[in-house]
């Protein structure tokens, strides 16, 4: 599968719908899509570009897992949660996270190619190992709205030079 055009009537895409479409270089999801399952683009190793619909609210678990050529993603303003392993082992270097995102789940960016990231105002929770093993991550700015920081959130971020923590954190886990 090298090209796919979805009709504008599609409102829902199930779990793993395009999983392991290894020859798919790009995908534009129509704005009619509201519900998208987990692992939709997992292991699409040649996916370089994706346009997400404006009405989706959750970037599900394992959404872009293993997308080794996807380096930039713009998350729609309607998204409130980034699921577990969403960008696991993904080449993404730059992600635009909108202000509406309140939760970044466990392992969300684990072992990704992130270099710098500014987390949005309104973010309250960063999950366990959310950014672990992001060896290219050098800078992270955390808004003062973050109240919960999961254990080992930045474990093995060997090039992390600058981090600004939230003033609302009452506990910094190991």
Overview of the structural elements:
With 174 residues, the protein is mainly beta. The strands form 5 sheets. The protein has a 5-stranded parallel sheet, with no helix packed on it. Strands 10-12-14 form a 3-stranded parallel sheet, with no helix packed on it. It has a two-stranded parallel sheet with strand order 1-3. Helix content is 0%, strand content 20%. The mean pLDDT is 95. It is globular, with a radius of gyration of 16 Å. The chain has strands at residues 12-13, 26-28, 35-36, 49-51, 58-59, 72-74, 81-82, 94-96, 103-104, 116-118, 125-126, 139-141, 148-149, 162-164. The N and C termini lie far apart (44 Å). The chain contains no helices and 14 strands.
Give a quick rundown of the structure.
The protein is an all-beta fold. It has strands at residues 12-13, 26-28, 35-36, 49-51, 58-59, 72-74, 81-82, 94-96, 103-104, 116-118, 125-126, 139-141, 148-149, 162-164. Strands 5-7-9-11-13 form a five-stranded parallel sheet, with no helix packed on it. A three-stranded parallel sheet has the order 10-12-14, with no helix packed on it.
Task: From the structure above, extract its key features.
mainly beta, three-stranded parallel β-sheet, globular, 0% helix, 174 residues
How is this fold's topology laid out?
Elements: E1 12-13, E2 26-28, E3 35-36, E4 49-51, E5 58-59, E6 72-74, E7 81-82, E8 94-96, E9 103-104, E10 116-118, E11 125-126, E12 139-141, E13 148-149, E14 162-164
Parallel strand pairs: 1-3, 2-4, 5-7, 6-8, 7-9, 9-11, 10-12, 11-13, 12-14
């Amino acid at each position: 599968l090298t090209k796919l055009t979805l009709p504008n009537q599609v409102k829902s895409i199930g779990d793993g719908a395009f999983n392991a479409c290894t020859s798919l270089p790009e995908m534009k999801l129509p704005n009619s899509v509201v519900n998208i399952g987990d692992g939709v683009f997992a292991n699409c190793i040649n996916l370089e570009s994706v346009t997400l619909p404006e009405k989706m609210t959750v970037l599900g678990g394992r959404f872009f897992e293993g997308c080794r050529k996807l380096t930039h993603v713009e998350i729609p303003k309607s998204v409130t949660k980034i699921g577990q392993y969403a960008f696991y082992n993904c080449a993404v270097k730059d992600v635009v996270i909108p202000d509406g995102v309140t939760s970044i789940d466990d392992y969300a960016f684990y072992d990704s190619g992130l270099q710098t990231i500014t987390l949005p105002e309104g973010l309250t929770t960063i999950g366990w190992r959310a950014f672990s093993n992001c060896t290219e991550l050098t800078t992270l700015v955390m808004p003062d709205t973050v109240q919960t920081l999961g254990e080992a959130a930045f474990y093995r971020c060997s090039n992390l030079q600058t981090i600004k923590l939230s003033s609302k954190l009452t506990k910094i886990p190991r």
